[in-house]
Write a structure and sequence with these properties.
Rossmann fold, elongated, 446 residues, 19% strand, 6-stranded mixed beta sheet, alpha/beta, 4-stranded parallel beta sheet
Length: 446
C-alpha cells in the first residue's frame, strides 16, 4: 500500500476568500504498471485538476492486484481517505480511473463526497475551454455519450438483479429508461447540428484544397499554440495548462518563395484520451488527416519525453494518420541547458535524424524549422512541361502563383505557351483537370 502523503505546497493553500473546490486525488496501482510510470500518471492527474481550477490538497495511491468491484479501492483505504477528507474539509474525490455507476454510487454513499473519474474530469476541462459553437456541441455530445454509457451499464446491472423478469421494473428503473431516451434524443439533435456545421466547413475546405497544408499535433501543453503564433504571427490563446485550446485554428502564410501554406493548430492529445472525445472532435482531427505535413511538437523538457511521443503516435494510428509525412519538433529547448540535455539531444538526433530542436517562446532555431519545412516542400516538387492556350489566362496565372516557372515560350502557330516549371505534385491533378475541361469546352464551342 502506497500513501503519497506529500507536504502541501503553499501555492495550493486556500485564502479565506477562495471558493475553489478542495480535492483529493486517488489512484489504484497494480503490478502490471511500473511504480514510476503510475506516479507520473498521478502527476498528470494533478495537472488536469489544476487546469479544471480545483485545489489539490493530497494524493492517495493504493497498490492492489485487482480493483474492488464495489468501491474500486479497498474499503479500508477508502475509509482512511474519508476520515482525512473530513479533517481537511475536502468535499471532492477525483479518481485516476473510470468508475462504474455502481462504484460511483457506493463511494458517494460512504464518503458523502462528490466523485469524479478521469474521463469526467477531462470532459469538464473540455467544457470550460470550448469557445466556438462547434466545440461546445462536440463537448456536449461527448458528455452525453459518457452519461449514456453509464446509464446503460446501470440498466444492465438492474436487469441482472431482476433476472429480466417482465413487470419487475420499479420507479428507479423506469426513470433510468426515460433518462436514456432523453439523452439519446438530445445526442441525435446535436449530431444533426454538427453535420450541418461540417457541411459548411467542407465547403470552406474545398476552396483551399489546392494550397499546401501543415498541421501541428502533439501532447497537450507541448507548446503547439505558441509555435503556431510564432509561425503565423497570430495571437491565439496560450497558457501553461492542459487543453488550453480545443478549436482548430488555420492561417494562410507565405514562405520565402512566396508560396502559400496553410498552417493549422489542432487539439492536444493526452495519454488514454477517451475514445468518445476522438469521435466527437472528428472535424478537428480531420484537419490532421487532410494535412500534407504534420509537425509533431514535443515538450523536450519533459522527463516523460519518449512516453509522450508514443502516446501521440498511438492517437495518430487510431485516426489513420500514422503514415503521413511527420516532422518531429522538440520544443522548449531553452529549458534544456544541462549537460544531460546535450546527451539527450545526441540520442534524439540518432533516433530521429530529421528532427529539429527549437523554442517557440524565445525563437531559438525557428529559422532551422523554416528550412526543414522548405526542404520538405522542395522534395515534393516536380519538373513538368505544359502547353497552355494563350486565352487560358486563369491557368497561366495559377502556374505562376503556385510554381517556379523556369522557361516560357510563346508558340505563335498554335497560339499557346510552352511552359516549363517546378511545382508541388499536389497541384498536378488540378492542372491536368483544368486543361481537360478547357479542351472539352473549346470542342463544344467550335
Amino acid at each position: 500500500m502506497i500513501h503519497n502523503n506529500e507536504k502541501k505546497d503553499k501555492a495550493f493553500l486556500l485564502s479565506a476568500n477562495d471558493t475553489r473546490e478542495r480535492v483529493f486525488l486517488i489512484g489504484l496501482h497494480n503490478k502490471d504498471t511500473k511504480k514510476d510510470d503510475y506516479l507520473e500518471s498521478m502527476e498528470e492527474l494533478r495537472l488536469l485538476s489544476k487546469t479544471a481550477e480545483f485545489v489539490h490538497v493530497d494524493s492517495f495511491v493504493q497498490m492492489l492486484d485487482k480493483a474492488n468491484p464495489a468501491t474500486w479501492i479497498g474499503k479500508g483505504k477508502l475509509q482512511e481517505i474519508v476520515d482525512e477528507a473530513k479533517k481537511q474539509n475536502v468535499k471532492t474525490l477525483i479518481f485516476n480511473d473510470n468508475l462504474s455507476p455502481a462504484q460511483t454510487r457506493n463511494i458517494t454513499n460512504i464518503s458523502k463526497c462528490r466523485i469524479i473519474d478521469r474521463t469526467e474530469l477531462i470532459l469538464d476541462i473540455f467544457s470550460q475551454h470550448a469557445k466556438t459553437r462547434e466545440a461546445k456541441i462536440q463537448v456536449e455530445v461527448a458528455q452525453l455519450e459518457y452519461s449514456y454509457s453509464k446509464l446503460k451499464n446501470m440498466w444492465e446491472h438492474f436487469s441482472r438483479i431482476d433476472g429480466g423478469m417482465i413487470g419487475a421494473r420499479g420507479p428507479g428503473e423506469k426513470q433510468l429508461e426515460k433518462d436514456r431516451r432523453l439523452i439519446k434524443g438530445r445526442i441525435a439533435q446535436l449530431k444533426k447540428k454538427l453535420d450541418d456545421i461540417r457541411k459548411h466547413t467542407e465547403v470552406k475546405r474545398k476552396r483551399r484544397d489546392d494550397i499546401l497544408s501543415i498541421s501541428l499535433v502533439g501532447y497537450t501543453n507541448a507548446g503547439k499554440s505558441t509555435l503556431f503564433n510564432k509561425l503565423t504571427n497570430a495571437q491565439i490563446y496560450t497558457a501553461d495548462k492542459l487543453f488550453a485550446t480545443l478549436d482548430a485554428t488555420t492561417r494562410v502564410v507565405k514562405n520565402k518563395n512566396n508560396e502559400k501554406i496553410l498552417i493549422t493548430d489542432t487539439i492536444g492529445f493526452i495519454n488514454e484520451l477517451p475514445p468518445l472525445l476522438i469521435q466527437s472532435f472528428y472535424s478537428t482531427l480531420y484537419e490532421v488527416l487532410e494535412a500534407d505535413l504534420l509537425l509533431h511538437v514535443v515538450d523536450a523538457s519533459s522527463a516523460r519525453l519518449y512516453e509522450l511521443i508514443e502516446s501521440v503516435d498511438a492517437v495518430l494510428k487510431d485516426i489513420n494518420a500514422a503514415d503521413k509525412n511527420i516532422l518531429l519538433v522538440f520544443n522548449k529547448w531553452d529549458l534544456c541547458n544541462s549537460l544531460t540535455s546535450l546527451f539527450l539531444k545526441k540520442q534524439l538526433k540518432e533516433k530521429y535524424p530529421d528532427s529539429v530542436f527549437i523554442s517557440a517562446k524565445t525563437g531559438l532555431n525557428i529559422d532551422t524549422l523554416y528550412e526543414k519545412i522548405n526542404y520538405y516542400l522542395k522534395k515534393r516538387k516536380m519538373l513538368v512541361n505544359y502547353k497552355i492556350p494563350m486565352e487560358n489566362v486563369a491557368l497561366i496565372n495559377f502556374l505562376h502563383q503556385n510554381g517556379t516557372v523556369t522557361e516560357i515560350e510563346y508558340n505563335e502557330s498554335n497560339n499557346e505557351y510552352d511552359i516549363a516549371l517546378e511545382i508541388d505534385y499536389k497541384y498536378i491533378e488540378h492542372i491536368e483537370r483544368q486543361l481537360h475541361d478547357y479542351s472539352i469546352q473549346k470542342y463544344i464551342n467550335s
